[in-house]
Structures are given as structure tokens and as C-alpha cells.
Design goal:
Radius of gyration: 24 Å
CATH architecture of the largest domain: 3-Layer(aba) Sandwich
Binding site for Mn(2+): 102, 104, 140, 169, 366
Number of helices: 10
Largest sheet: 8 strands, mixed
Number of domains: 2
Structural class: alpha/beta
Organism: Anaerobacillus arseniciselenatis
CATH superfamily of the largest domain: Zn peptidases
Number of strands: 16
CATH topology of the largest domain: Aminopeptidase
InterPro entries: Amidohydrolase, Bact_exopeptidase_dim_dom, Peptidase_M20, Peptidase_M20_dimer
Protein name: Peptidase M20
Strand order of the largest sheet: 1-2-4-3-5-16-6-15
Cofactor: Mn(2+)
């Protein structure tokens, strides 16, 4: 049997074909019906028919059983974003206002590629354990209960026997042939807030007769923007931002209330709790000035915690497969990733796979011109497969 790198290159056209089909037919979170059907079709063609379907709506967990050994999970996300694509690709989105602008089409294609190669190893009697290929829906958005796909996946019991899990994410700020890894907290806890400041409103010519909520908000904003610099330890990671302010409808009318919406990001549970407490404290200052407040917190994804041992496996795999690969060891930023839910329950690690074009400006994630260098696809597959081999004999 050829080495993993060669075998991954041999299926490059399959990878490109899968990815381009998925790219042209993107579907939003919890609506991935056709995407799921396509994934199922490809798995069955490979001879992988142990499938659990309709998980969290349209998720699939495909199981490949080899010799006795541990159960390893490989995960990709399958949903797209509400973005109108503005690329000139021949395989551009055919669904108006929906686009694979975060690389989930590539993630899915690479997981299919790993399934294909590991199925070959199973048929040859060389698979030393069980692999579960997790095609997870709804990573990008929540449902009416405020949940993304990962919590539903965990509740389903489909991966309760998984002892270790890996995921990857395409990385346009790194070039093809580079990866980014990090041990420990690597992406942020996400908490969004909605804060309503209440006054009594009135005539703009007689502000002294009421309690002006816009005036009250001016103090609240100063407090919010002081939290990170004066309340959070400078050695800790945390941030808070206000994204929306709504209040008033006329120049000469003081409104009864003003609503602020924003987000808080952190890397630890301690800072996460601290930011929420401090936001309550800041908001409560309006009570001393005659106002009232209501604060609602929507808890999103937990911080992505990358298991140090599994992160080391990724690094060793990449170095052994690609002698000249550049490995950057940095956190992935303050974005959210619902793989963090899985990493809370199962030792896990995610790595970022360089997909940027040499000599071109970065095609940023979540933008209408996002694109990847498809030469990166076999690299992701090879690292996935080699990591599985190493994890099955640990």
C-alpha cells in the first residue's frame, strides 16, 4: 500500500469534486437536508453503511469498525452562512444569499477523503480500532433554544463511546503547506448580552422632568469599556464589545428606554463569570441615578480546549508526513467554535490548515469572496489519517 501522502494526492480530484459540489449547494444551519443526503450517498459508495442519521436534524455519524481497539472521532461541520457569494468560481453558490464562506464544504470533503482511505485500510485488515466520522450540522447558528449542533450531537449518544476526537478548520491567513496548532484554550467562550436601560422619557425641551435613558447609557458605556482595562487581570484573555444601540425615534422626544446589545469573549471559566458579574455591576449604576435596567445573557459556545497530548500527535503527524511543513503554535483567536462543546466532554484537539494562495491577499473567513487553495485538501486528509493511526495505538 502506498504511503498516506501519495494516497491522499491520488484522491485529490475526488476531494475537489466533493468540495465544489457542496460549495455550489450550500444550506443554512439546521436546514442541511440535501447536504446530508449527498454525504450519505458518497459514504455508501465507499462501502461505509453503518450510519446514524438525522442527528441534530441532518447530522450523520458513520462508523468504521476494525480490530479491537479504541474509538476515535473525526468531526467536520456541514452548514453554510447567510452571505451572498461574490466570487467568479464556476462552482459558486446556486442558492441565493447562502454561501460556504467558512470552509465547511472543504472540511466535509476532507472528512470524506479520510473515510475513503481508512475504509481501504479496514478492508486490508489494518485498522486497529474504530473510527467515527462525524458530519455535524449547525455549527454556525443556533435554533430557537439557543443551541448549535454540537450539544444535540452529544445528547444523541452517537459519540458517547468516543475516547478522543479531532477536527480541522481551513485557515486563510496561513498558506498551503502551513498549519496552526495550540494547546489549551484556543478559541473563546461566547456570551452575548442584551441590556435595556429604562428611564421615564419626556419632552426634549424639558429633560429635567424625566429620567433620560440616553444620559444614563453614557455612564454605562464608560463602565463597559473600562471593564477589560480596569477589572480583568491583564494576563488573562477577555474582551467585551457593544455592537448595537437602539433608542428614540424623534429629535425632540426623550425615549423611555435604550437597548444595548453586545458580546463578551474569554478563554477561561473564571474570566467568563467575572465579565458577567461586572456587567451587572456596571448596569446597576443607573439605579443610583433614578433608572432601571434589565440584563439578559445568552450563553454560547464554551472555549475550545485543545488537549495537549492530542495537539502533540497532530504536530508529530504533520512533521513526519511533510518534512518542510511550517507549524505555527498560536491560539486561534477570539472567535467561537462549537467543537468546544465536544472538547468539554471528550479529549479533543482542532488544528488550522493553511489554505491561503501564495502571492495573493487573504480571502477572509465569513466574507463574500472567500476561497481556498484546493491543493490544501490532500494535506488535511493525510494528517487526519495519520493522526488516527497514531491515536489507535496510543
Amino acid at each position: 500500500m502506498l504511503d498516506i501522502v501519495s494516497r491522499s494526492e491520488l484522491i485529490k480530484q475526488d476531494l475537489i469534486g466533493w468540495r465544489r459540489h457542496l460549495h455550489s449547494q450550500p444550506e443554512l444551519s439546521f436546514k442541511e437536508e440535501k447536504t446530508s443526503a449527498y454525504i450519505k450517498e458518497q459514504l455508501l459508495k465507499m462501502g461505509i453503511n453503518d450510519l446514524q442519521t438525522d442527528i441534530a436534524g441532518h447530522g450523520i455519524v458513520a462508523t468504521l469498525r476494525g480490530m479491537e481497539g479504541p474509538v476515535i472521532g473525526l468531526r467536520s461541520d456541514i452548514d453554510a452562512l447567510p452571505i451572498e457569494e461574490k466570487t467568479s468560481a464556476t462552482y459558486a453558490s446556486q442558492n441565493k444569499g447562502v454561501m460556504h464562506a467558512c470552509g465547511h464544504d472543504a472540511h466535509t470533503a476532507m472528512l470524506l477523503g479520510a473515510a475513503k482511505l481508512l475504509k481501504e485500510e479496514q478492508k486490508a485488515g489494518k485498522l486497529r480500532g474504530t473510527v467515527k466520522f462525524i458530519f455535524q450540522p449547525a455549527e454556525e447558528n443556533t435554533d430557537e433554544h439557543g443551541l448549535t449542533g454540537a450539544p444535540y450531537l452529544l445528547r444523541s449518544g452517537a459519540i458517547e463511546d468516543v475516547s478522543k476526537a479531532l477536527a480541522l478548520h481551513v485557515c486563510p491567513w496561513r498558506k498551503t503547506g502551513e498549519i496552526q496548532v495550540h494547546s489549551g484554550p484556543s478559541m473563546a467562550n461566547i456570551d452575548n448580552f442584551s441590556l435595556t436601560i429604562k428611564g421615564t422619557g419626556g419632552h426634549g425641551g424639558y429633560p429635567h422632568q424625566g429620567k433620560d435613558p440616553i444620559w444614563l447609557v453614557s455612564f454605562v458605556l464608560q463602565g463597559i469599556y473600562s471593564l477589560i482595562s480596569r477589572k480583568v487581570n491583564p494576563l488573562d484573555v477577555g474582551t467585551i464589545s457593544v455592537g448595537e444601540i437602539h433608542g428614540g425615534k424623534a429629535a425632540n422626544v426623550i425615549p423611555n428606554s435604550v437597548k444595548l446589545s453586545g458580546t463578551m469573549r474569554s478563554y477561561t471559566k473564571e474570566v467568563r463569570s467575572q465579565l458577567i458579574r461586572e456587567l451587572h455591576t456596571v448596569a446597576s449604576m443607573v439605579e443610583t441615578l433614578g433608572g432601571e435596567y434589565e440584563l439578559e445573557i445568552e450563553h454560547g459556545e464554551p472555549a475550545l480546549y485543545n488537549d495537549p497530548n492530542l495537539t502533540e500527535v497532530i504536530k508529530q503527524s504533520a512533521k513526519s508526513l511533510y518534512k518542510n511543513i511550517a507549524i505555527y503554535e498560536d491560539p486561534f483567536g477570539m472567535g467561537g467554535e462549537d467543537f468546544g462543546h465536544i472538547a468539554e466532554k471528550i479529549p479533543s484537539s482542532m488544528f488550522f490548515l493553511g489554505c491561503g494562495f501564495e502571492g495573493e491577499n487573504e480571502r477572509k473567513l465569513h466574507t463574500d469572496n472567500f476561497e481556498i487553495d484546493e491543493e490544501a485538501l490532500p494535506i488535511g486528509v493525510a494528517i487526519f489519517v495519520d493522526c488516527v493511526r497514531r491515536m489507535l495505538i496510543l
